Amino acid sequence: MPGIIDSIALIVSSLATATWAANALYLGTYAALAGGLAFGAQALQGMFVDKPKVPKPDDGSYNLKQSVPSLAYVLGRTKKGGDYVFLEEKNGTAYHIIVWAGHRIQGFVSHYLHDDKATLNVDGGVTEPGHYDKDGVSFVHIKTRLGLNAETAYSEVVTAFPTIWNNNCRGDGLASVLMTCRTVDQKEFMDVYPNQMPEHSAVGDGALLYDPRKDSTQGGSGSHRYTNPNTWEFSKNLALMRLWHLCHPVGGKMAYENMYLPDWANAANVCDQNVTNRSGGTEKRYHGGFWFRASNDPIEVGRIMDEAAELVVYERADGKIGVHAGEFVTPDVRLTAENTFSIRVDKNKRRANTVLGVRGRYVNTTKDFITEDAAIYGDPYAVVDDNTERTRTFENAAIQSHNHCQRKQKLTFIRANARKVSVVADYTAEGVRNLPYRRFVTVHYPSRGLAEATIEITSSVTIDLRNMRVSFSGIIVNSSLYAFNAATEEGEPGESVEPLPDEGVPVPTDFDPTIQTEVVSGGATAAFILATWDFVDDTLTYEMEYDRTSGSTGVQSVFSQAGETQVRSGYLVDGEEYKVRLRAWGGGTKSEWTDYVLLTATADPVAPAPVTAVSVDVSTPGEAEFGWTAPNSSNYFACRIYINTVNDLGTATLVATEYGPPSATDLRVVTSLAAGTYYGWLVAINPSGKPTNPADNDVATGAFTVT
User: Fold this and answer.
1) How far apart are alpha carbons 603 and 527 in whole angstroms?
2) Closest by Cα among 415, 418, 446 to 348
């Protein structure tokens, strides 16, 4: 029995869609029975431990700040941020050291500050965007390290912080970036740093990969040796990435000696095949790039590469790990009714399972590595039936070409709608024992509608040694499974949102400052500027600047509350001319000023007519209720009430000011009066505090006694 079990192959298929199914395929029959290979045990562990998901391309658009980040690994070319390992400031310069990848990389292609692509001079100074360079002085500098086995410390940081960062802080094996940012004068800060501290990200070519085709000791031609990573080269070939991952500690933790390298060389050749895209140009069949963290589930990471390159990893009869490339291979195993115990065919024509179209998403490398929608494959509106699964979404972080995405969408469409087959065959029949090592098999069973049908195996091949039977499931395909005519099938990619140039904070519109007046302490009227403008956004605040045209007092400014559409100045000097302008602030940046508006602060020199029908009611002890009728004067603003114990307005005390409209009958109660005889006067004023003629006897109440 052990000898028979040892011959059982482990097939690991990327075609499964369910997590449980994919894990089972990775685990395999052998691993389930005998404890299996290292990556089988790791897969078993992955079934019970919830590990972080592989990051999406957009997740790398920012730099991570945490105490102990998980190392990032970059395969192929991609755009991402990094992990902070140092951030300090000294003498007005901030020093950022960011680890971009936890391994040696081929090199950095370009750098970005926020969403703007940066141009560097020979010293690493940022010259574009231009606001980082003022008068030929670069305020931001960028330097890099590739992550060699023995790296060099950043001398700038060692010089600035010798007590905490010395020449031993090299970052061996870590691809990193040093970004220094100098401070500027406060008045220029928002011009140089309109978005505050720059957020760095970079496009880079990731890990060096072993290529068996370039190893003369493995049947290839070249100096590559899997025992010497220094001989490896950078590549975007997805099969080589998968080989690297299976043999790396963050992946399968296997040895290259356990890999069947002829299979991997063939898969790499298939990935390097040229295909024609819709524009008539050529590109590689299965190339791409993505990044992940050491803490990510290696099964999920492997599935991304398997899916993108149409790879199926399996264990051969000799115990080595082989791979089926993403190509059609004519089957050499044929099942007939004579060697088939049972067969079940599902036509897969149910409306609920019919996929009318496939929507794909891919990473567009020509547009700063943003994720875009590809053209829809199929016609999702072909059938009007709410029970129909109109579309299925396909997305893979490693796919970086519209043509590649469309080819995968077509395969997704075909497999979703293909007839499904389950077969139980005789394990002793000729060739049947090779089924675990095959991707395609021929089934001839005319009574079930299968005449020399080609079946793509989509499940693990199960071997029942008690009954000497072998069973598997698959879908019916044909030899043109991978055929693709880009001119007619690729379609036009969807329009992506083009980032608009930063126009800054908008200049205020309909700026309208006017002179207003109000009564202040003591009843005087003061003039001020009240400015209004059009509403734009709740997050904006506005700064109004005003100054005498004579310049005798200096510039003054006031700020509005966020979301408000008006602001007022302090009190003005009566009779002075002022120049006024406005600008908006948002997110720490400011707009341009509006044009100046000239205004003159003028107090009202004309007194209103006196109040009439003056009366006083002292029926309530300790109180006096004054009544009057306001004059019919347009500039009437308020009535001042004076009280004295003698009949002398000049020494009387102002006890109240009652505001009201002209011609109105009004009253005011003055409380807390001591018992005694009083004299009262009611004096009308205008908004500038100009009183009516106090000599007019109509404003006097005469003597009244408070009890």
Assistant:
1) 7
2) 418
Cβ-in-10-Å burial (0-12, 13-18, 19+) of 697 comes to exposed
In order of 40, 65, 572, 601, 605, the CA distances from 578 in angstroms are: 82, 50, 9, 8, 20
Confidence of residue 603 (pLDDT cuts 50, 70, 90): low
Terminal Cα-to-Cα distance of the chain (whole angstroms)? 121
Return the closest-CA partner of residue 663 out of 614, 628, 617, 693. 628
Closest Cα to residue 80, out of 177, 220, 212? 177
How far is 243 from 237, CA to CA, in rounded Å?
Answer: 10
Q: Which of 183-187, 249-253, 619-623 has the lowest mean pLDDT?
A: 183-187
Instruction: Flag whether pLDDT at 408 surpasses 50.
Output: yes
Note the pLDDT of residue 40: 38
Amino acid residing at 417: N
pLDDT in tens, 672-692: 999 999 999 999 987 767 788
Task: Provide the 3-class DSSP secondary structure of residue 620.
Answer: coil
Query: Over 90: is that where the pLDDT of 436 sits?
Result: yes
pLDDT, average across residues 337-352: 87
At what angle are helices 298-309 and 402-417 packed, to 10 degrees?
90
Q: How far is CA 607 from the centre of its chain?
A: 65
Contact criterion met (CB below 8 Å) for 476 and 421: yes
DSSP 655: E
What is the maximal distance between C-alpha atoms in the chain?
133
Domain 612-706 belongs to what topology?
Immunoglobulin-like (2.60.40)
Question: Using alpha carbons only, what angle is made at residue 412 by residues 408 and 414, rounded to the nearest 5 degrees?
Answer: 115
How many other CB atoms are found less than 10 A from the CB of residue 246? 25
Cα gap 339→469, rounded to integer Å: 10
CB of 389 closer than 8 Å to CB of 354: yes
Q: What is the pLDDT of residue 22?
A: 36
Tell me the per-residue pLDDT of 14-69, one tens digit each, with 9 for 90 and over: 333 333 333 333 333 333 333 333 333 333 334 334 567 777 776 666 566 666 77
Between 144 and 8, the higher pLDDT residue: 144
Calculate mean pLDDT across residues 206-210: 97
Find, among 126, 120, 125, 76, the residue nearest to 101 by Cα. 76
Give residue 252's pLDDT. Answer: 93
Alpha carbons 513 and 686: distance in angstroms, whole number: 22
pLDDT at 5: 32
CB atoms within 10 A of CB 58: 14
Q: Where in the chain is the domain with CATH 2.60.40.10?
A: 512-600, 612-706
Got the DSSP string for 147-180? --SS----HHHHHH-TTT--TT---TT-EEEEEE
| Torsion angle in degrees (nearest 10) through CA of 160, 162, 165, 170 | 90
- Alpha-carbon dihedral of residues 15, 18, 20, 22, nearest 10 degrees? 20
List the CATH code of the domain at 512-600: 2.60.40.10
The residue among 311, 99, 347 whose CA lies nearest residue 200 is 99
Selection from 328, 402, 487, 368 nearest residue 114 by Cα:
368
For residue 177, give every residue at least 6 positions away whose Cβ sits within 8 Å of its Cβ, in sequence order, or none: 82, 96, 97, 98, 100, 108, 111, 142, 143, 144, 145, 200, 202
**pLDDT band with cut points at 50, 70 and 90 for residue 503:** confident
Nearest Cα neighbor of 302 from 367, 209, 397, 380 is 397
Helices 38-48 + 19-34 axis angle, to 10: 130
Determine contact, residues 705/677, Cβ cutoff 8 Å.
yes
Q: What are the residues whose beta carbons fall under 8 Å from the beta carbon of 286, sequence distance 6 or more?
A: 237, 238, 239, 270, 271, 308, 309, 310, 326, 404
Contact, 460 vs 11, CB < 8 A?
yes
**What is the reported pLDDT for 268?**
97
- The overall average pLDDT reported for the chain is 86
Question: Which pLDDT belongs to residue 425?
Answer: 95
